[in-house]
Amino acid sequence: MSKWLGLMSGTSMDGIDAVLVSFPDNRIQIHHTHSIAYPEDIRQRLTQISQNQGTPDELGELDHIVGSLFAEAASQAIEKAGISSNDISAIGSHGQTIRHQPRGNTPFSLQIGDPNLIAEKTGVTTVADFRRRDMSAGGQGAPLVPAFHKAFFGSETEDRCILNLGGIANISWLPAGGNQPVTGFDTGPANALMDAWCQYRTGRPYDEDGRWAAEGMVHQELLGDMLSDGYFMRPPPKSTGKEKFNLEWVKTLAHRHSEVSDADVQRTLLELTIVSIARQLPHAPNMTIFACGGGTRNTFLMRELKRACSPLMMTSTADLGLDPQWVEPVAFGWLAKQTLEKRPGNLPEVTGASGERILGAVYFA
Ligand SMILES: Nc1ncnc2c1ncn2[C@@H]1O[C@H](COP(=O)(O)OP(=O)(O)O)[C@@H](O)[C@H]1O
Ligand SMILES: [Mg+2]
């Protein structure tokens, strides 16, 4: 049975998740999982360059460093799984997004982490650069996971919504029976702004279990100001990233409300995540929401989100048989499979592309 290796690092820039997976009878079977954290100095350099601060040399070096780290994550996963690289059909590597600018006359999306290094060091055929073909066909290049959600999480009888809480939040709406089109888009920030503010004010990369936010109060005027950002009102297709929702965005708004305490800003950012998601959910009274991504580990966020989405049912993808931490890496393993089988990986109704496309570039072993 063919095995695939998915490699993912999202906008949170916390580290690389690697998963060894197969798809027997259209089911997901995980064989091994492995994560490595970015060294702190690399995380800082990635943050800088993603804010447009850096030279072409710096970008080139980071492309090499990140590629080496992705290769290392893959090699460790293969070794720990105790299998040979010959047993793996391909690696699907998302890379590390540095900038994502899907709008305007010169749209682009830039992921780094040289795939040549991954193929060379692991001896496994590597598929990467998944987003740009969709963009060339007029799409946003994102989100790409809805095609995977549709393939594995759709139900004949239940309306389902998959909610990914990474740095950015994205939803996939899977109507029961599959006879209505799937929709999916980025709703805005999930953890990105909370992480940025927490790092800036406390030096910690994220607010563990939302404990700091839980000490604060929602400041309604600040929340209203945040929610007036045009992104939340814009209809799909749409996608976003840290070039928009970043520390500067928070600082600009917090500055207008300088009376608000740091903890209250944190609590208000958590509320922004919740309200922006809740407002943009499809209107389907019987749907169940399945959450995934690192945000599901923020217990306070999950409790408040459940409250805001009530009476809708909310649980995690664990109830669909897939641990919430591994949904995105598995999706990129599956996208590599789609590419090598010459099948499309995008959903044009989600990304806005003019049609289905085979995604990615292949770096043969
Ligand atoms: N125990 C926790 N408490 C609060 N937040 C957490 C916890 N564990 C993970 N997170 C959040 O999840 C994020 C990582 O989620 P992930 O799904 O990897 O996002 P991305 O796809 O953007 O890399 C962290 O940056 C942090 O905000
Ligand atoms: Mg991550």
From TrEMBL:
Q: State the organism of origin.
A: Marinobacter lipolyticus SM19
Look up the EC number in the record and give it. Answer: 2.7.1.170
User: Transmembrane region positions?
Assistant: none
The uppermost taxa in this organism's lineage are: Bacteria, Pseudomonadati, Pseudomonadota, Gammaproteobacteria, Pseudomonadales
- What protein family is recorded? Belongs to the anhydro-N-acetylmuramic acid kinase family.
Instruction: Give the Gene Ontology MF terms in alphabetical order.
Output: ATP binding; kinase activity; phosphotransferase activity, alcohol group as acceptor
What this chain does, per the entry, is described as: Catalyzes the specific phosphorylation of 1,6-anhydro-N-acetylmuramic acid (anhMurNAc) with the simultaneous cleavage of the 1,6-anhydro ring, generating MurNAc-6-P. Is required for the utilization of anhMurNAc either imported from the medium or derived from its own cell wall murein, and thus plays a role in cell wall recycling.
User: Which chemical reaction does it catalyze?
Assistant: 1,6-anhydro-N-acetyl-beta-muramate + ATP + H2O = N-acetyl-D-muramate 6-phosphate + ADP + H(+)
Can you say what this protein is called?
Answer: Anhydro-N-acetylmuramic acid kinase
- Source domain of life is Bacteria
Q: What NCBIfam families does its record include?
A: PRK09585.1-3, PRK09585.3-2
Pathway(s) this gene product operates in, as recorded in its UniProt entry: Amino-sugar metabolism; 1,6-anhydro-N-acetylmuramate degradation; Cell wall biogenesis; peptidoglycan recycling
For the ligand (ATP), the binding residues are 10-17
Report keywords, A-Z: ATP-binding, Carbohydrate metabolism, Kinase, Nucleotide-binding, Transferase
Q: Which GO terms describe its biological process?
A: 1,6-anhydro-N-acetyl-beta-muramic acid catabolic process; amino sugar metabolic process; peptidoglycan turnover
Its encoding gene is what?
anmK
What is any Pfam family matched here?
AnmK
